[in-house]
Structures are given as C-alpha cells and as structure tokens.
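Worked Example 4.2. Consider the chain below.
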Amino acid sequence: MAASQQDHERILVKHAVTGRMLINSGTDDVTYELERSGEGGGAVLSIRGVAPWLAEEIRGMQRELNVFHFEETPGVPPVKHWFYVGEHDVTYEASTSTLTIHTGSEITYNPSEYWA
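Applying the procedure from the previous section yields the following structure tokens:
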C-alpha cells in the first residue's frame, strides 16, 4: 500500500500566547487539506473531525493562533511552514465537523539550515 502525503506531513494548531497545542494531525483523529491562496503567503486550512467544543474554544482565540505545517519526507531534511492567523477568519461547520482557518503570512524554513 502506498503512503499518503499526510503520512509524511502534519499540521499543528497552537495558541500563540501560551504555546498550548490545540490540534496535532500526527496524534489527533483528524484529516486536513491545506490550500495556499497565493495572496501574501496566506492559506486556507480545512480540518475535519474537530469536536464542536474544541472548535468553539479555537474560535474564541482565533486572533492568537499559529498554524504549522511540517513536511517530513524520509531521507530529506524536514521543511516547516509557519502561518499566522491574526485578523483572518476561523469558521466551523458542525454538520461536517470541519474547522476552517484562513491564515495570513507564511514563513517557510528548513531547520537543517540553522542547526548542524
């Protein structure tokens, strides 16, 4: 069986102020789609499988969210993408348990460029 792209990628949604982990696709029972908008480095992240109580909590701190996307292909140095949410929208569709996060700017970095 071939590995899916998400087998080598994961997303994290964290509270920027406290560093609290809210969603980790590597350990939580969620799936996601990340679409880059092409406008100023923003993206739209749709996460399926988010409980209503967690979605409400995340929406309550939407101005203080950081989203991380990690590409961790075996044999290749990992690439990390950091998206800032800020003034962008965070919505929840209860019928599909889908949390949608619109992000602003993106910073991409390769940790191997900073640590030997």
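The beta strands are 9-15, 21-24, 31-36, 43-48, 65-71, 79-84, 90-93, 98-102, 106-109. The radius of gyration is 14 Å. Compare this with Example 4.1 before moving on.
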